[in-house]
Amino acid sequence: MSSDFEVYEQDFGTLTADITNKVGRIPKLSGDDKKGMVANVEKQMEEARELLEQMDLEVREIPLQSRGLLSTRMKSYKQELAKLDKDFKRSRIAYSDEVNLRNELLGDDGNTTENQLIKLREERACLLDNTERLERSTRRLEAGYQLTVETEQIGQEILENLHHDKEKIQRARERLRETDTNLGKSSRILTGMLRRIIQNRIVVFILGAIILLSIVLAIYFAVRGH
User: Fold this and answer.
1) DSSP string covering 37-89, please?
2) pLDDT at residue 110 greater than cutoff 70
3) Which are the contacts of 149, defined by CB distance < 8 A and separation ≥ 6?
4) Residues 6+ apart with CB under 8 A from 102
């Protein structure tokens, strides 16, 4: 496992724990204290997203057959951050805001009715529902993108393997051509040697015949001379 990944992982755990603590405190705050806390959490959420991106890059550098466990952990971290983001958005419009808004409305106009607050609650619920739908769509898009990236990586590895196989086949063909060439040369050499052997045998046969004939003639003339 990459040492950089482990460092990012530890930083992410520390950061999300701090964010969780602050998100739980936001509904109890108001005014400038709440604005400052919200701004601080927004900054930390952005840092957490950047850490996840760095971790994701580290995972992609690991060979495909070894990244299964890390991919599962990355998926868990992304889900954890998505839940934190949802809790953070909910905390920003929590019950304390409703109380403050009610007090402001009643302070401005004593004739403000409960229907206005009900309408505000409905609008807030609708906003939360739309936000959740948007988050679900975003997660599906991210999952689709991740699948596309992994598919592309697998495709690249397959193409690389095919390229290596092609090179091996080409080298094998070259060796076969060299073997054929060497066999052709060997065949020509053997044919030449066989031809010379036959020629030598013919020469030996002719010489033997001449010697034999000379001996016969010599014997003939010797007998005839007596």
Assistant:
1) HHHHHHHHHHHHHHHHHHHHHHHHTS-GGG-HHHHHHHHHHHHHHHHHHHHHH
2) no
3) 60
4) 117
pTM as predicted: 0.45
How far is Cα 44 from Cα 50, in angstroms, rounded to an integer?
10
> Which among 144, 141, 20, 9 has a CA at the least distance from the CA of 77?
9
Average the pLDDT over 193-221 and give the result: 89
Residues written for the chain: 226
Q: How many CB atoms within 10 Å of residue 99?
A: 11
Q: What is the pLDDT of the chain when averaged over all its residues?
A: 80
How far is Cα 143 from Cα 148, in angstroms, rounded to an integer?
9
Determine the average pLDDT of the residues in 45-59.
Answer: 90
Tokens found for residue 125: 């619920």
DSSP string computed for 165-209: HHHHHHHHHHHHHHHHHHHHHHHHHHHHHHHHHHHHHHHHHHHHH
Nearest in space to 23 (alpha carbons), one of 82, 88, 86: 88
Residues in contact with 57: Cβ distance below 8 Å, sequence separation at least 6, in sequence order: none
Alpha-carbon distance of 82 to 68, in angstroms, equals 21
